[in-house]
Design brief:
The protein is mainly α. The chain has 3 domains: about 120 residues, Rossmann fold, CATH 3.40.50; about 120 residues, Serine Threonine Protein Phosphatase 5, Tetratricopeptide repeat; about 180 residues, DNA Cyclobutane Dipyrimidine Photolyase, subunit A, domain 3, CATH 1.10.579.10. It has 21 helices and 5 strands. It has a 5-stranded parallel β-sheet with strand order 3-2-1-4-5, with helices on both faces. The radius of gyration is 24 Å and the shape is globular. It binds flavin-adenine dinucleotide. The site of flavin-adenine dinucleotide has 27 residues, from α9, α11, α14 and α16. Pfam families: DNA_photolyase (PF00875), FAD_binding_7 (PF03441). Its EC number is 4.1.99.3. Belongs to the DNA photolyase family. Belongs to the DNA photolyase class-1 family.
Length: about 475
């Protein structure tokens, strides 16, 4: 067996706490990192344009960071197995290591690759690191997967704490064979028409930016997380979701940073609330593992017969996507999403609920739009989020609990700062009307420079009517 090791990187785009890299370094011999772009191999959950944009920038940061540690990054396109075989021939590698993914199509592909390479005599191994717990490892007393978050997370918390993060390898003294790869641009991850200015102004991809973001969050904002996390106008959450999705940092690095903050005096409840959000991420993968078609099929199969509203020409869907529904909190959220590739969690729930309940359009349409536009798009978390919003998931909000987007705005964005930021046309409306401009007297609208129907749309639907229609549609499928 050759002494070189290939490390097949996927969504573990970092040097620290990377078990596959660490084991490759321990094996001795040169280590060559490989990124293979083969979206056709994971057709069930293909990433969208914003996700590709982030991936490009994350790989761009990773190449030089790996090079500094003496590890070349080789970029290739093409089917994984054939491309790995070609690289094995070119480098004489005797081992291929990677960290695991958990989406069903990726799992099937990885299994095939592992079996084939092992049959050919390669030392082929995969490692857990994307989650705190393997999705199949946490089981209820009946030895079945959990369907509710609270007992699931309680069971997780009973497990021993995760191991301490691994240091980055330093292989500068190991000579490596020269291997041909593609330029990053050849992977075609960036958009052809430049719609990404807002994303560029918002995100800095890469491991060192992610670690800096984590440290700053733990030092400055974690202590107030429980109070601020639902206020979309505040920078109250960590903003770590794309970094966690692409593995620029690992959940156990986040875990240990929170533990250090707790030691340093950050209140227990803030730490626990934040860790439980990591728990939701774990739960999403747990659900996807037991429901591989979570992104398409409702967990509650009564919803297979739900009477969705016909939407000729997708007119309402397009208005929702473009942030032109006439409901300010919904529209502000959709503008934030389009401009930054991210949306605050509270607003994801409100925009999702409005689509599925007031507009009564299928949740899968919203899931697809988020898939295309979120930089943190994650098959498991997005599918779980949409099924939660639609009321058809495991441990979901019941369908009959319908968010009123005006009340949500008044409660979580009381001065309308979030709405004003993303909808400048409404900036001069008094707080009292900011979440429901159609209720403002004509003189108030005039003073604020708002003409409904031209500066800002009239509501697509009467909220009370939408709610009543949603409830009676639900009656039709209630068992
Ligand atoms: C309809 C809908 C779709 C969603 N789609 C995605 C998605 O595609 N990708 C994604 O990462 N999250 C998704 N979420 C969950 C959540 O909105 C984001 O994780 C969160 O807003 C990311 O911001 P943050 O990093 O500042 O979160 P923080 O509040 O700082 O939380 C820390 C981390 O915990 C995890 N997390 C937090 N909340 C959740 C949650 N409800 N479910 C799963 N993980 C969570 C994320 O990894 C996050 O980075 C979705 C939620 C809804 C309601």
């Amino acid at each position: 067996m050759g002494d070189a090791t290939l490390v097949w990187l996927r969504r573990d785009l970092r040097l620290t706490d990377n078990p596959a890299l660490d084991q490759a370094a321990r094996r001795g011999g040169p280590v060559i990192a490989v990124y293979l772009h083969a979206p056709e191999e994971t057709p069930q959950y293909p990433p969208g344009a914003a996700s590709h944009w982030y991936l490009h920038h994350s790989l761009k940061a990773l190449g030089p960071a790996l090079a500094q540690a003496g590890i070349p990054l080789v970029l290739r396109r093409g089917p994984a197995l054939a491309t790995l075989r070609a690289l094995i021939r070119a480098t004489g590698a005797g081992a291929v290591y990677w960290n695991r993914l958990y989406e069903p199509d990726a799992v099937a592909r990885d299994r095939t690759v592992k079996q084939a390479l092992r049959t050919e005599g390669l030392d082929c191994r995969s490692f857990p690191t994307a989650l705190l717990h393997e999705p199949w490892a946490v089981r209820n007393q009946a030895d079945r997967p959990y369907r509710a978050f609270t007992p699931f997370w309680r069971a997780c918390r009973r497990q021993p704490p995760p191991a301490a993060p691994l240091p980055a390898p330093d292989l500068r003294d190991r000579p490596v064979p020269a291997v041909e790869g593609l330029d990053l641009a050849a992977l075609g991850l960036l958009p052809r028409t430049p719609w990404d200015t807002g994303l560029r102004n918002t995100w800095q991809a890469g491991e060192s930016a992610a670690l800096a973001r984590l440290e700053a969050f733990a030092a400055d904002r974690l202590a107030r997380y429980a109070q601020d996390r639902d206020r979309p106008a505040e920078p109250g959450t960590s903003g770590l979701s794309p970094a966690l999705h692409f593995g620029e940092l690992s959940p156990r690095q986040v875990w240990w940073q929170v533990m250090a903050a707790r030691e340093a005096g950050v209140p227990e409840d803030a730490c626990e609330t934040f860790l439980s959000e990591l728990g939701w991420r774990e739960f999403a993968h747990h659900l996807l593992w037991s429901h591989p078609d979570l992104g398409d099929a409702p967990v509650d199969d009564r919803f297979g017969a739900f009477p969705w509203r016909p939407d000729p020409g997708d007119g309402w869907l397009h208005a929702w996507q473009a942030g032109r529904t006439g409901i300010p909190l919904v529209d502000a959220g959709m503008h934030e999403l389009w401009q930054t590739g991210w949306m605050h969690n509270r607003v994801r729930m409100v925009t999702g609920s409005f689509l599925v309940k007031h507009l009564r359009l299928p949740w899968q349409r919203g899931e697809r739009w988020f898939r295309d536009t979120l930089v943190d798009w994650d098959a498991a978390s997005n599918a779980m989020g949409w099924q939660w919003v639609a009321g058809c998931g495991a441990d979901a909000a019941p369908y009959f609990r319908i968010f009123n987007p005006v009340r949500q705005g008044e409660r979580f964005d009381p001065q309308g700062r979030y709405v004003r930021r993303w909808l400048p046309a409404l900036a001069n409306l008094p707080d009292k009307y900011i979440h429901a401009p159609w209720t403002a007297p004509e003189a108030v609208l005039r003073r604020a420079g708002v003409t409904l129907g031209s500066d800002y749309p009239c509501p697509l639907i009467d909220l009370r009517l939408g709610r009543e229609q949603a409830l009676s549609a639900f009656q039709a499928i209630k068992g």
